[in-house]
Amino acid sequence: MLSLSTIYFLPSRIMSVKEKLKHIIRRPTFLYHLRFQLLSKFETKESVSELYYNVLNPISEIPQYFFEINNKIFANQTNELNDLEKAETIARWMINNIKRGRGLGLPSEDTIKIMTLEKGGVCSDFAQVFNNLCVINNIKVKEWGFKSISKNKHIRGGHSFNEFYCKNLGKWILIDTYKCIFFYKKDSNIPLSVFELFDTLKENGKVIFKNIEPTYLTDPIRVKDVYLSSNSVPFLITNYHNKTYDCYLKKFNFLPVFFTHGIVYLLGKSYKFLFIREIYFQSKTE
Fold first, then answer.
1. In this structure, are residues 144 and 177 in contact, taking their beta carbons and an 8 Å threshold?
2. H or E segment and range at residue 275
């Protein structure tokens, strides 16, 4: 027999179960693990050196709304900017004009529209937006991810970030627009690339991170947990054709996202996760 207190709390419990069932249907854990296994392989630094987002995503295929956003981002710029300054300007605009929320997994134009309306967006959505804005600004860009096996629910599952090629410095630079940070060697003012970061850690060197937007301060503990933990393994995301995914996500918008990704995989048009053999981890930082 149900007591009054049980009856009182029953609706909230039912709602909780419903929400969990919705989450399981939308993002079934076992299928995501299976997808990760199917898409993952190991490569070397040398083999991935020329794999970047722009190769499959020319400026002519970037949705029009990104150009409108890009005009807003650079509306007040009167001087010609180099690649580093452009990337910083984009990162500052994103952190000041986009609020975080639920993961979207939508076509890229829908993603940026929803994010600028302050209705959602996680790290992978930030990385997707940054990719397309870099293409518009003639900047080579890559997208990276972390596979995390941490028991900490706040970082379990992973994280997404970017890397762009700075022509004036002649090097790749790691940028995290979701956390709005660069990484540096101690006593250096030149941002590190992905390989430079992990090579430095492998050699027990110390690295620091700095916020790109002075008014936004990210949690240093979270940065260490994500980037400098033996529980996090980085991988490069390649073979992502934005136009292809936009097409299938729109065409099959009545299906859960993982089904659509499965269709793209079966058609042989899926992105890939490339783990780099030479990267190791040490947790030395300040």
1. no
2. strand 272-276
* Nearest residue to 241 (alpha-carbon basis) of 270, 266, 215, 267: 270
β-bridge mates for residue 42, sequence order? 275
Contact 88, 68 (CB under 8 A): no
φ/ψ of 120, rounded to 5, equals: 155, 175
Distances (CA, A) of 114 to 12, 18, 72, 121: 29, 25, 16, 8
In sequence order, the β-bridge partners of residue 165 are 172
Q: What distances in angstroms separate CA 265 from CA 3, 34, 245, 269, 277, one per listed residue?
A: 51, 12, 11, 6, 24
100 three-class SS: coil
Partnered with residue 234 across adjacent β-strands are: 146
22 falls in which pLDDT band (50, 70, 90)?
very low
Give per-residue pLDDT as tens, 93-152: 999 998 877 777 788 999 899 888 877 788 999 999 999 999 999 999 999 998 876 666
Cα→Cα distances 92→97, 115, 191, Å: 8, 15, 16
- Give per-residue pLDDT as tens, 24-53: 445 556 555 676 777 888 899 999 989 999
Position 89 scores a pLDDT of: 97
Query: Whole-prediction pTM value?
Result: 0.83
- For residue 159, the surrounding DSSP H or E stretch is strand 159-166
Using DSSP's 3-state secondary structure scheme, residue 245 falls into: helix
| pLDDT tens for each residue of 52-85 | 999 999 999 999 999 999 999 999 887 899 999 9
Question: With the C-alpha atoms ordered 191, 197, 201, 203, is the resulting torsion angle positive or negative?
Answer: negative
Start-to-end CA distance of the chain, whole Å, equals 58
Q: Which sign does the torsion angle of CA 285, 94, 255, 270 carry? A: negative
